[in-house]
Structures are given as structure tokens and as C-alpha cells.
Amino acid sequence: MYVAVKGGEAAILATHDLVAEARRGDPAVPEISVAQIREQQALACARVMNEGSLYDQDLAALALKQSQGDVIEAAFLMRAYRTTLPRFGSSEPLDTATMAIRRRVSATYKDLPGGQVLGPTYDYTHRLFDFALMDEGGEAPPRKAPAPLDATMPRVPDILGAEGLMEAEEPPEGDPRPFDLTRDPVSFPADRDVRLQSMARGDEGFLLGLGYSVQRGFGGTHPFVGEVRVGEVAVEFVPEELGFAVDLGDVTLTECQMVNQFQGSKDVPPQFTRGYGLVFGHSERKAMSMSLVDRALKARDFGEATNYPAQQDEFVLYHADNVEAAGFVEHLKLPHYVDFQGELELIRRIRREREERLAQEQEAMPEAAE
After folding, report:
1. In terms of pTM, does the model score above 0.70?
2. Which one, out of 204, 249, 293, 343, has a CA that is 20 to 30 A from the CA of 357?
3. What whole-number distance in Å separates Cα of residue 367 and Cα of residue 150?
4. Quick check: 286 and 50 in contact, CB under 8 A?
5. What are 338-353's pLDDT values in tens digits?
6. How far apart are CA 199 and CA 316, in angstroms?
7. Rounded CA gap, 351 and 358, in Å?
8. Is there a contact between 317 and 186 (Cβ–Cβ < 8 Å)?
9. DSSP H helical ranges for 100-186
10. What is the pLDDT of residues 280-318, one digit of tens each?
């Protein structure tokens, strides 16, 4: 039982104890472990890794436990920890064409070269409660050996590109090092590498809303899901002392390539254009939303009008960061006593002046009537 505590530091320390008590909940209920969160709440961990801009499943699970499941607070914890880590260099570009596929679907080809791989998804489940999941003593279902997959699974944009029907993507002249928005300030208009970085760690709900908006007429995008693929990709790093690539391990990624129409121009024949999304973990909704907004932000490159929020990089990039947005909104809880007293005095003065003016007008009315 707690009593009121006066004084800034003592009160703050008391809130730490209250948070720990609230986080633990009823002591009669077994405490949830980090391993349980990592293994059984993998989709939530993926979102924390994306918005926290750090791939570490254990830390993502710990962040969710520490924050009582508050995803934005968990992402904040991940970013704060990330700033303490030494940086040895940059990995080699990931080759998603060599991904060890767990799930791969396309809305453009029924008979997709390499086949459709449904994998683990809620797309085909009934949205009904499974009350059997409340039985905590139940045994885990046996793990099934994965069915053998085709060795070759070409990406859909590559198939279209072979016919010259897909917008070609070439690195900028000289293939410069990508911009790092964690180290350098962003300027506008922002290049695509900056936009993709920002969206990769942006708020999933915000990007989902923007992606939805462009399909409802606020952007004029009518896309097809060229391909969504989920799986593991090797990360390689070239140490200076060795001079050749070393395999650091695998990361789970979700990649989405969205196919959009483009009517062509005087210099460019009619072809499909692409929107791209690449995120940590199994996170299809985030990758798809990202790819929709990526294509919307390329409007200026194709000479299209930029009339809507999703087409304006400054709007998207400044507002997609939920850690920054949460900080700006929640800072309103901090003391603003002096500011408020100033506003209060201003309102009182305006009311006094208004009342005096009304009184003068009322006094003048009988004289005007005479």
C-alpha cells in the first residue's frame, strides 16, 4: 500500500515502484518470460524491431515485457539502447533473391514461377475466438517438416523487367554510400534512400493509413501485389583486415514489391512502376504499406501531381516517426505552469476588456435613442 509522497525525486522513485508492481500484475499468475514473448509474440517483436530500428529478437521481447506491451515505448527502449552500441561498419547489400523462403505470394500470376507458398498467415483464418488457446496446459502441436520448395523463385518485377515492362532500378551514379538519417539531418526534397529508411522504422499504423488513402483517391494509386516474400537472408560483412565477406548470420525479413501502372511519356514507354518495402521479421502489413507510400512519393519523379499527403515527402517523413511523435504529444504532461499562467492572464484581460466595451456600448445606447 502506498501513501502520497511529496517532493520531486521521491515521487518519481515511487512511480518506478508502482510501474514494477503494475507490470508484474497479480503475483498468483505465473510471470511471462522473455523467451515466451519472443517465441509466441513474434509479430509484436517484429514491429518493435522495425520501429526501434534494431534487429534483435531477444531485446525486442524484453522491451515488450518491460513496457507492458506498449509497442511505442518498447521501440523507444530499442532506439535508446541502439545509440550505445559501437558501429564497426556497414554490411554488404542484402540479396533477397537468395532468400530462404517461408512464405511467398503474388496477386499478379496464378502460376508463379517457383510456386505460391502460403506459409504461416492469418489471411485464410476465421476471425473467431479459439477458446482452446485459454487452456494453458495443452501440448504444443507437433512441428511439421517443411515441404521442399523450388530452388529458383524469381521475383515478379524481375520477370516483368525481362520483357521491358517494369521500371528499371539502377543505383545512383557512382553508387554512393546510402544516407544515414541516424547521423545526419534530413533535408527536402529527400532522396529515395532517405525515404525508405524513414519508412522502415516509421509507425506501422501511420503508414497503413497513408497507404489506404492513396487507394481511396488521395493519390490515384491502383496497385497489384507483385510479390510478398518472407524468409531468412544472410548478412555479410567485409572486415578491413580480411578483405573478403564473412557471413554474420541470417535475419528474417519481409519484402513487398508493389506493381503500379504508368502511362509513359515522350521519353519513357508505357510500363509498370514499382513500390518497395523491406522490413524486419514477419511484417507483411508494414511492408505493403511502405511499398504503397514509396510509390506515392515517387510521383515527382514521374511528373505526376503531388496534391496529397502521401505524395509529399516532408509530411510523410516528419510524421511517420512514432517515437518522436509520442515524445512531442506526451511532453504536454510535463509542467507548463508558467505558460499556462500567461495564457490564463491573457484570457482574463481579454474578458475584462470585452466586458468594459459591452458596458460602454450599453451606456451609449440610451443616449443614441434620445
Report:
1. yes
2. 343
3. 97
4. yes
5. 999 999 999 999 999 9
6. 8
7. 10
8. yes
9. 156-162
10. 999 999 999 999 999 999 988 888 889 999 999 999 999
